[in-house]
């Protein structure tokens, strides 16, 4: 099987946490649903029309953070409305904190590994990525934050059959038996954990929510894998010279 690999880059990003209320807090990495939306925009799917076709069963996705980021908080004005008329002619506003991601190198960046199971869709997506043209504009979680794609290539992937691995991407904690923190390479880890949606139904309700970890210092994570990871962890030989560097599906 083959994965299409591309980089997503932008000046700022905001991936709103689904469990926040008035304060718009952001994830440190894009949830699977955000990447699903990016793929839908590239292919030209209409809004709310792609949740089944691009579900976790039909579209394999892994995400690697490739730029270190920090958070800033800006206050934005929203319309305060208690009736339909006030939406058309707002009288007052309410201020809401908005948490943004910014990059230490001037931009936010993620490497995305995708594989549509449908051959026709795979071919269409590959063509769009190679040309650098998307059917609809691509955003980093919210309309004010434009993003662009940079195609890395097409790579052969193999299921990882060992009981331990160095995971390069965001890791679903349900796939690991334990973290291996005894190695010298683990000394520089800055692990972050959060719960993120990974699938929607037709009404935009999250049908699956999982806990993920990633390293903010961009290091691979050594883990001992659970038996459930058998079909979720892959090794891409041509992409890395490291025999044990793997990607984990979201």
From TrEMBL:
GO BP annotations, alphabetical order: defense response to virus; maintenance of CRISPR repeat elements
Statement: the UniProt record of this protein carries the keyword Repressor: no
One Pfam family here: Cas_Cas5d
Keywords, comma-separated and alphabetical: Antiviral defense
InterPro entries: CRISPR-assoc_prot_Cas5 (IPR021124), CRISPR-assoc_prot_Cas5_HALMA (IPR013421), CRISPR-assoc_prot_Cas5_N (IPR013422)
NCBIfam families given in the database record: cas_Cas5h (TIGR02592), CRISPR_cas5 (TIGR02593)
Name of the protein in its database record: CRISPR-associated protein Cas5, Hmari subtype
Organism: Caldicellulosiruptor acetigenus 6A
